[in-house]
TrEMBL record:
Domain of life: Eukaryota
Organism lineage: Eukaryota, Metazoa, Chordata, Tunicata, Ascidiacea
InterPro entries reported for this sequence: MABP1, WD40/YVTN_repeat-like_dom_sf, WD40_repeat_dom_sf, WD40_rpt
Organism name: Ciona intestinalis (Transparent sea squirt)
Pfam families cross-referenced by the UniProt entry: WD40 (PF00400)
Protein name, entry field: HELP domain-containing protein
Coiled coil: none
């Protein structure tokens, strides 16, 4: 048998019933801001990118994009809304956007606005993870390369949210880069250098 006991407190030799303060629900998303990150999860050159105009350095730290300004030694951050670990990223040539790839189940290719620090669009692209990404210089296309077991290259017309082209590969790709005219891109991997031409530019 349990007995209900009323908790009381004494004040000036008088007994008052004790009232527990009600809990206040605090939304930490609006009251806490990430200030500084020490460390990174950079695994290769595809996890680091530099804005060619401002010189701001972007790199991955878990599910966060760290934007480091070497001129004033300050950081700003963009958090991946999917909460998956970021594996690669790249600035657009005008420095206004960043494209990222991630690992895990049903990874996405995501494009973020650097100014607004928010996601613009995302694509469920590969099965296991994304190893490297790149913008075309005209900012029309984004290319994404899947992990070795995925073996897929996708080209996205990201402003229209459509898959413009896709192809299978048989070897591991370590890096990708567009030509200055955005009419083809090059992949480099284990014992290969391949040129991929876009049909629309032919």
């Amino acid at each position: 048998m349990s007995e209900k006991r009323e908790v009381r407190r004494r004040r000036n030799n008088q007994v008052y019933p004790y009232r527990r303060k009600s809990r206040v629900n605090i939304n930490l998303q609006h009251n806490a801001e990430l200030g500084q990150i020490s460390g990174f999860t950079v695994q290769n050159n595809c996890s680091v990118s530099c804005d060619p105009k401002s010189g701001v350095l972007a790199y991955t730290a878990g599910c966060v994009i760290v934007l480091h300004n070497p001129r004033n030694d300050k950081q700003t951050h963009i958090v991946n809304p999917g909460q998956k670990c970021l594996t690669c990223l790249s600035f657009s040539h005008d420095g206004n956007s960043i494209v990222t790839g991630e690992s895990g189940h049903q990874p996405h290719v995501r494009i973020f606005s650097v100014v607004d620090r928010c996601q613009v669009v995302s694509f469920p692209s590969h099965k296991y993870g994304v190893s490297c990404v790149a913008f075309s210089p005209d900012a029309k296309f984004v290319v994404s390369v899947g992990f070795q077991h995925d073996n897929v290259i996708n080209v996205w017309d990201w402003k229209r949210s459509i898959l413009a082209a896709s192809n299978k590969v048989s070897t591991k790709i370590r890096s990708v880069s567009f030509s200055d005219k955005s009419d083809y891109f090059v992949t480099v991997g284990n014992r290969h250098v391949k040129f991929w031409y876009l049909e629309s530019s032919a």
